[in-house]
Amino acid sequence: MSEQQYIDLYQQAREMIFSHAPEVMNAVRDEAFGDFCRQGFPSKKVERYKYTDIQKLFAPDYGVNLNRLDIPIDPYEAFRCDVPNLSTSLYFVVNDMFYRDDEPKGQRQWVGGHRPGILPEGVVVGSMRNHPDLVAKYYSHLAKTSDDAITALNTMLAQDGLLVYVPENVKVDRAVQVINILKSPSSVTHHPSPSLMVNRRVLIILEEGAEIKMLFCDHAADDCHFLATQVIEAYVGENASLDLYCLEETHYKNVRLSNVYIDQQANSHVNHNVITLHNGITRNKLDLTFSGQGAECQCYGCVIADKEQHVDNNTLITHKVSHCTSNELYKYVLDDKSIGAFAGRVLVEHGAQKTSSQMTNQNLTATRDARMYTQPMLEIYADDVKCAHGSTVGQLNDAALFYMRQRGISLDEARLLLQNAFINEVIDKMQLEPLRDRLHYLVEKRFRGELNKCTGCRLCK
Predict the structure, then answer these.
(1) Which of 167, 360, 391, 407 is the least buried, fewest Cβ under 10 Å from its Cβ?
(2) What pLDDT, in 10s, does the model give residues 15-40?
(3) Containing domain of residue 295, as a range?
(4) Using an 8 Å Cβ cutoff, are 258 and 283 in contact?
C-alpha cells in the first residue's frame, strides 16, 4: 500500500524530523503518526475522497527534504509579479520553508515596483518557530489528525509553517501576498528521482475585530514532478474579517492536496476563493464551522481545465449555531479529457435556527471526453431555515453561438466569449479589486491558449 513507505520514512527519520522542527510542532507529531497508521490513505470508497485516487497519487517515490537543506534560489531577485496596483505585502515560501523571516519589517527590497510595506504594530507574518507560545494555543486544534489521513501525514512530516496573527481591532489595509514556490531539490538532496514532496503548514489567527486579506499564489519553478500537501487553519474571532484567496498556476506535473479549516466566531465574515488556472491534479478540501451567531461566509471557486487535468473541490460547512449565513458558488469549464468534481455538504445541526444557506455548482463541458461529477448535499436538523442547493452540467448554448456567428464572430471567438462570461460571474464577486481585474485578463488568455504560466514570474521562464 502507498502509506507503507511514509510509515517507514517516519520511523527511520523521526530523529532528523524532530531535530529540524520547533517543539510546538513536535508535540503533536507522534499522535499524528499514530492516526496516519490507523487510517492509511483513503480509498475511493471513502465518501469525501470518491472522486480522486489518493493512494495512486502517493505511490511514487518522492524525495523529501527532511534535513532542511537550503534550496539555491533568491525569490526576491527572481520573482516579478505584474499584477498592476496590487501593492501587497509580499512574502515567500520556498517549498515548505518560510523565506527570510529574520529580515526586519519595512527593510525588504522592492519587488515588481512595489514595496511590501510595514505591517501594523503587533501583526505577525512569519515562521511558526519564532512564536511558540502563540502557536501552541491554536496549532492542530482545528485540523484534527484523527479525521483525515492527508492532514495526519502533513502534521507528522511538516517541519515549519507560516504564522499570520492580527491582534484585536487591528485592520491590515494592505493585502498580504504569499508566493508558494516549488523548486527542484536535485542540486542539494542528491535524490535519484527529480521529484519532490513538500508539506506546507499555515496558521491564521484573527483576534476580535481584526481584518486581513490574504492571497496565496502557487507557482512551480522547475519542470519536474511535485507533490504538495497543504494544511491551513484559520481562527476568525468575533467581528473579525478574513478574505482568503488561493490561486494555482503550476503545471501538469504538479499534484496539490490542500485542506483548509476555518472556525468563525460571532458576527465574523469570511470570503474564501479558490482559483485553478493551471495544474496537474488538484484536490481542495474546505471545512468551515460557524461557532458564533451572526457569522457569514462567501465561498467561491472557479476552475479552468483541459488536456488531462483533474480538479476536485470538496466542501463541508457546519452551522452549529443560529442566525448564520453561507453562500457557495463553484464554476468549472472543462475541455479535452479533463476531469472535474465538486462535492459540497451543508450540515445544519440541532438548534441552528434561522440558518440561511445557498449552494450552487455550475459546469460547462466543452468536449464529449470531459467529465464532471457534482454532488451538492444538505443535511438539516433544524426546522426554521432557508437552505437551497443546485447543480448543472451542460455545454455552450447553441442558440447563442449561432447568434454571434450570424454577426460575423468566428466560432472560436464566440466560444471564448461565452466561456469568459460564464466564469467571470465568480471572479466578479471577489473583493480584492486589483486581483479581480487581473484575473479577468488571465482567464481570457487561458481560454485563448496563450497562458501557460504567470507572465510576470521570471521563475517560470
Answers:
(1) 407
(2) 999 999 999 999 999 999 999 999 99
(3) 4-460
(4) yes
